[in-house]
Design a protein that fits this description.
The chain contains 13 helices and eleven strands. The chain has 328 residues and is of the alpha/beta class. The relative contact order is 0.18.
Length: 328
């Protein structure tokens, strides 16, 4: 069941965070749906109520243009039919104004992110306001961004510029955006911190206090970049050195301060890279593309289950289902 992020955030606020996972292909989509239903290997396994979770499926501009957006959109629509128990939002990640409008008109997305954070404040306000008006007319919600994250992911590159709490309050009031992605020290990619740097929960607390009660915040660049997966990649011929991520212990601390959505992309790529490299290393005679794909889908589903546990969303699926029905 596709829902808006707003419906998910109302249930999660202050208690746990919703995992927002980027996908690019069939194997990621299947692993993602299985994992969020507590299924590890087969589509028809029973749902595990102790681990099943609501989630946000994210599509970036790069994923949309990788082959053709219609392929990926068809995969998502099919997954909704194959996994009817799932409760999820379909979200455009880091959209430009034109891409947001295309997503709004597609009939698939329930949420879009307009990222004009690289523009001057007034221009960011104006662009975001236009997207909000267009999206709200179709019942779609909008995430915006204020401040800039560091690092590089796809075509996103920037230096860190933390969100100003006072500006955040003004921005939300003037644009009408439904959630706000804030810069609190995280970065895109596999190299998030250097030295003693970490997530600025103190800045997050100030932003929360300046915004209306219950207003949902978003944390980008939140992959934990687990050493286990990096080591497996390097042992299989990779060269990922000096990587770092967000400590998983920060997730629930951020959730208590109003973060309802935590974006995780890099971790999924690491799982993909490790399982495929190991498959090619261990079975050099095998040229069947389905062999590593099967291994990855199971590994990714298991990793999603783990992530939902540290996010606090594991076991919340049925509670969310009842909550949404009561709201209607």
């Amino acid at each position: 069941m596709r829902v808006t992020t707003t419906e998910l955030f109302r249930h999660a606020y202050g208690k746990y965070a919703i995992g927002a996972y980027n996908i690019n292909n069939l194997e990621q989509a299947v692993g993602l749906f299985r994992g969020n239903l507590g299924k590890r290997e087969k589509n028809d396994e029973p749902v595990d109520p102790k681990t099943a979770a609501p989630f946000i499926l994210q599509i970036s501009r790069g994923a949309r243009s990788y082959t053709d957006k219609r392929f990926l959109e068809a995969i998502i629509r099919t997954a909704e039919e194959v996994f009817p128990e799932a409760i999820f939002a379909v979200h455009l990640d880091h959209g430009t104004e034109d891409v947001c409008y295309d997503a709004i008109d597609s009939g698939l997305y329930t949420s879009v992110m307009i990222d004009a954070s690289d523009r001057p404040f007034e221009e960011n306000v104006a662009i975001t306001r236009r997207v909000v008006e267009r999206a709200h007319a179709k019942g779609i919600v909008v995430e915006a961004e204020l401040g800039q994250l560091g690092g590089v992911e796809e075509d996103i590159a920037a230096s860190v510029h933390l969100t100003d709490p006072d500006q955040a309050a003004e921005f939300v009031e003037r644009t009408g955006c439904d959630s706000l992605a804030v810069a609190i020290g995280t970065s895109h990619g596999a190299y998030k911190f250097s030295g003693p740097q970490t997530v600025r929960l103190d800045v997050l607390a100030k932003i929360q206090k300046r915004l209306p009660p219950g207003y949902p915040l978003v944390m980008h660049g939140a992959s934990s970049v687990p050493k286990e997966w990096v080591d497996r990649i390097n042992a299989a011929g990779g060269q990922i050195k000096g990587s770092s991520g967000v400590p998983e212990s920060d997730y629930l601390e951020a959730a208590k301060l109003g973060v309802c959505k935590i974006n995780i992309d890099t971790d999924g790529r690491l799982v993909w890279c490790a399982t495929y490299r190991e498959s090619f290393r261990d079975k050099p005679e095998d040229f069947d593309p389905r062999t590593p794909g099967k291994v990855f889908m199971k590994a990714y589903a298991s990793y999603i289950i783990h992530k939902n546990q540290v996010l606090g969303s594991a076991g919340q699926l049925e509670s969310v289902r009842k909550f949404i029905k009561q709201q209607k």
